[in-house]
């Protein structure tokens, strides 16, 4: 009896009646119901999340930006959620949302608090705080929905952070442009300041020359005044002698008559000399007044110049503190000139007094000259009134002494005037040098600002927007999928299809006998009996694999990258699984069904069909390496999704062939052992 005859006999037994046929059809469709229906039911759950109710609470009241616009980030979040269609978002209040999550009306709730926008703009006020979103979940509604909600909240947070970062970067870059423009204006203003300082330097150069001339003129005036003092001293000596001579007039009247013959002419000359002295003093006073006017104008011009410099600095955008420092520096430079001007004005007044006194003296001398003819005509009377003449001579002597003293005071004032003029010249020189330094510093400032303005970023609007977007969202994930499943169901298809074929092999031996008792009793070779017991399950398993492939591909929509290899791999998987289940049932009898069920459970948790197998507890890792479903999942993934890695599918096929051979070998050993009947076989303790 061959193995094929044994298989055909078993199949005839299973199709001998209507009910057995229905049972065979049912177990044939079990993998289809499990695998195809499970893939279909979980084909694209993420694509149907828009039907899952979720509450959104927008309590955000908005916030004002620095530019006067208003930020309403809460409303922006709400519109983005609606546009995303990630869930069936329903706008409600916070209490209603919390009650709805508790009752199951809403799967979860996302709450945008009142200060959400205010927190986003808080860094601009240097009082930064995080903008917080509140997520209300309830795992009693659905654990995975809560996990997805966490992901949605993270995406919302990332989107808001990106927008806020981009907006902050935009303002930051706009500030750069503003600084660039203002620095350019400052550079232009520094250039204007340099030009003005250059003009001031030139004007102060002329003023320096003028003060030098003033000092020289003051020294010339001092020399003339010195000569005038010497002349006044000689005049005093002469009037003293006149006084002494008046005492001798009475005794030498005749001699005086002879000597005074020229007296009218001499007194006229004296009057002329006094008038010249008066004129000289008047010219000196006039020149001194001109000098005083120049000095006063120079002092006034310094104040006006100081005010113009301050105004120019303010107009160029220099801060008030720097302007005040420059004004204080100019005050220090102007102080010697101001002090010298005060002394000049004092000396000018004294010279005016001297000129007025000299005028009086000249007038007196002129009267004396006019009276001299009368005096000479009345020489005789003079002899009689020589005492009176002596008294007059004493008075003249006193007047000459007063004139001498006034001229000495004028000389002292002129000396002070010369010293003040020297100080004025020195101050003008210092001011000229300082204005030169100011011009040089202004040019340096303008040059450095001109250089620095090129180092300040000044992007255009397009570049500024692109840069702000990059700063706000600096990292982008460029996912390069070597292979892609497409949907959630397609991603789980290898796992579900492998499980379906194991379950299909498991349920087959609820109907089929693993070994033919008749063949064993007839002494058929154990390997023939083993293969004959496995072939019916293999044939039905082949049908199961083909039906599963056809429905999953053409009905559900999985598109394998390698169709022929995929269906071949599924058939090999079915052969290997039926061989293993067959061997367990042949070797252990009813207990083999339980062992097959236990192996199914172990494969469910160790195959890595959902999460990566490395996430299972480490003690279970060896089971992943040993049990066949792990290799089925790995092989089907490479065959369904395509790409490199077909050698991994070939390796998995090799492992399944090993399981197939091992199962048939174990079945052969079991058939060999069951040629001898034992009481336990005749009357088993447990029958399934």
UniProtKB/TrEMBL annotation:
Bilayer topology annotation: Multi-pass membrane protein
InterPro entries: ABC2_TM (IPR013525), Phage_infect_YhgE_C (IPR017501), Phage_infect_YhgE_N (IPR017500), T7SS_ABC-Transporter (IPR051328), xxxLxxG_rpt (IPR023908)
Transmembrane stretches, start-end: 21-41, 488-512, 533-558, 564-587, 594-613, 649-672
Domain called ABC-2 type transporter transmembrane: residue spans: 482-668
Localization annotation: Membrane
Keyword Ubl conjugation carried by entry: no
Entry keyword set: Membrane, Transmembrane, Transmembrane helix
Pfam families: ABC2_membrane_3
Protein name, as recorded: YhgE/Pip family protein
